[in-house]
Amino acid sequence: MKIAIVPGDGIGREVIPAALTVLDAFGLDIEKVPLDIGYGKWERTGSAITDEDIETIKECDCVLFGAITTPPDPDYKSVLVRLRKELDLYANIRPFVPLKTVKLPCAGKFDFVIVRENTEGMYSGIEELHEDAAYTTRVITRKGSERIAMRACLLAKERKQSITIVHKANVLKSDSFFRDIAIGVAKKNGISYTEMLVDAMAYDLVLRPQKYDVIVTTNLFGDILSDEAAAIAGGLGLCPSANIGDRYALFEPIHGSAPDIAGKGIANPIAAILSVRMMLEWAGKNKEAESISRAVDDVLAQGIVTPDLGGSYSTSDVSNAIAESVSKFIGKQ
Ligand code: NAI
Ligand code: MG
User: Fold this and answer.
1) Using a 6 Å cutoff on CB, does residue 258 contact ligand 1?
2) DSSP notation for 160-213
3) Bridge-partner residues for 193, per DSSP?
């Protein structure tokens, strides 16, 4: 397997090397292709990502991605939005399961996945900035809606045979289009469905997360709901994601570059490590993926945690402990 490694900016440069320590513990036959992409590169060279970078990435099977700072500069185009489009990574899969021993703000067990459309919607990139008004075109296509609904149904087939379709069809015509297509796909696949308006969903997710299993929605709604979900699952430092297309995949923690803590060595690497777990699962390496989950639980149970979880350990303390635990589980010690 050939993996493009993109640490990016801020804590991406800390959590990705930490996650690689865990990946290396397996001793798998993996070629790593390091790439310098992001805001730091833009400051130095005037370009955050080049066409050659994209070509190099396309020669790899998948990408392990940290985070990239997006400055509020109208000339700066989001690298991740471009990568998701160029690689056609249309499904953003974000699982939320509270980890053992992590104290949660809400009671009860839950285990749900947000399946977010990743290439269109409000992030179409079609924008106009005028003196007294600004416009963003929200694009919802039949193809985009069908394939994301299909992804959700496939996931539901492995889980509880049901999906929740989240939209704002009472106000937005583009969302009633999305809704109708998603319902059609669910019916065709024998998957039961419920619908929620996105504002009601934001409210209910905090109060009753245990009610949900597979949630499918459009790009911006999925972006917002998944940060909310991270808060109830124990924090941004714990939540991984997979951006999946038919040919490529990109795995990344859902958090950003966290400039407030960058450079201090205290970022929680677990979200990045669990992103490696999702990558291994995607590559069919289920045994290795499972041992990462066990190792993370093991290290959390020992209280080896970063300050966001109330501990005083560093990023590398946590990743080294997880790598050691992984080695134990796979019998390398
Ligand atoms: P953020 O996710 O970087 O940080 C939000 C808060 O969570 C901060 O207080 C941060 O310290 C904390 N946090 C995040 N990850 C953590 C971790 N692993 N361990 C401990 N604490 C953690 O979001 P924010 O501050 O809105 O964005 C910062 C920059 O990152 C912006 O330039 C934004 O555009 C970019 N960003 C990039 C993303 C990506 O590349 N995928 C995703 C989200 C934001
Ligand atoms: Mg986000």
Assistant:
1) yes
2) TSEEEEEE-TTT-HHHHHHHHHHHHHHHHTT-EEEEEEHHHHHHHHHH-GGG-S
3) 163
| Helix (H/G/I), strand (E/B), else coil: 67 | strand
Report which bound ligand comes closest to the CA of 10: 1
Atom of ligand 1 at shortest distance to CA of 69?
Answer: 32
Q: Which of 187, 199, 264, 287 is catalytic?
A: 199
101: DSSP letter: T
Is 298 annotated in the active site?
no
Distance from C-alpha of 300 to C-alpha of 309, rounded to nearest angstrom: 10
123 is catalytic: yes
Whether the Cβ atoms of residue 25 and residue 291 lie closer than 8 Å to each other:
no
**Global confidence as pTM:** 0.93
Alpha carbon distance 92, 95 (integer Å): 10
**Contact by Cβ (8 Å): 91, 148:** yes
Ligand 1 mutation target, pool 49, 236, 268, 315, most atoms within 8 A of CB: 236
Which residue segments constitute the domains of the chain, with CATH numbers given? 1-91+239-333 (3.40.718.10), 105-232 (3.40.718.10)
Report the distance separating Cα 107 and Cα 1, nearest Å. 41
Tokens of 144: 């985009």
Which phi and psi angles does 289 have, rounded to 5°?
-60, -45
Instruction: Please list all protein residues whose beta carbon sits less than 5 angstroms from ligand 2, which is an ion.
Output: 223
pLDDT digits (tens, 9 = 90+) for 171-198: 999 999 999 999 999 999 999 999 999 9
Mean pLDDT of all residues belonging to the chain: 95
With a cut of 70, list the residues of the chain below it in pLDDT: 107, 332-333
In whole angstroms, give the CA distance from residue 151 to residue 136: 27
Residue 261 corresponds to which amino acid? I
Q: Is the CB of 236 under 6 A from ligand 1?
A: yes
